[in-house]
């Protein structure tokens, strides 16, 4: 298992700068897959990371390398072509986030983990110590990709339901109404890697070992 740290986040927070875009993060994932010569890859994205795995998978497939076998969206965005992170937000939310990012060198301060995520006090404090600002250059940047490139990939949406993260609500409805999706629920908040790590790991392993793979269309 490989964990890709996106530029400007986690242990690469020291690389954050105002010019980071969605393409920067797509390149991070594509570069890792190509450098490690990985095949039959299952890309896993949480929250905003759903945009990243979608775009990275399309980029890998468009290169003709046939590397991606599946996509897992952990309470994550599931974008259609042309959609982006902030595309469905109200004018008030957009204005508020743009103002916050402008005041922090084009980075969005992390939310208070003690509010709305059903975390214990200890878990909230653990997350607070590790949260860093989110690069903001991609907030109003649409993800343009060829959805046909991903038709062969098995797809799983992990829906965290207690409490449900409202930002993800349109995605929950979308995947449940679209044929070909596997959907599972975990009765926890938006950070299952903290609150239900064993259950999350089990779901990922089960998907990786048992999800039906959709055959690729033969090349013309």
Protein architecture, described:
With 220 residues, the protein is α/β, with parallel strands linked by helices. The chain has helices at residues 22-35, 49-62, 91-102, 121-130, 169-177, 192-195, 197-210; strands at 41-46, 68-74, 107-108, 134-135, 154-160, 181-186. The strands form two sheets. The protein has a four-stranded parallel beta sheet, sandwiched between helices. A two-stranded antiparallel ribbon has the order 3-4. Helix 5 (169-177) links the parallel strand 5 (154-160) and strand 6 (181-186).
Number of helices: 7
Report the span from N to C terminus: 34 Å
Q: In CATH terms, what is the fold-level topology?
A: Rossmann fold
Largest sheet: 4 strands, parallel
Q: Can you count the beta strands?
A: 6
Q: What is the CATH superfamily classification?
A: Alpha/Beta hydrolase fold, catalytic domain
Find the structural class using helix and strand composition: alpha/beta
Beta percentage is 5-15%
Low-confidence stretches: 213-220
Fill in the keyword field for this structure.
single chain, 220 residues, alpha/beta, Rossmann fold, four-stranded parallel sheet, two-stranded antiparallel sheet, 6 strands
Short description:
The chain is of the alpha/beta class and 220 residues long.
List the helices and strands and how they pair.
Layout: H1 22-35, E1 41-46, H2 49-62, E2 68-74, H3 91-102, E3 107-108, H4 121-130, E4 134-135, E5 154-160, H5 169-177, E6 181-186, H6 192-195, H7 197-210
Parallel strand pairs: 1-2, 2-5, 5-6
Antiparallel strand pairs: 3-4
Helix pairs in contact: 1-2
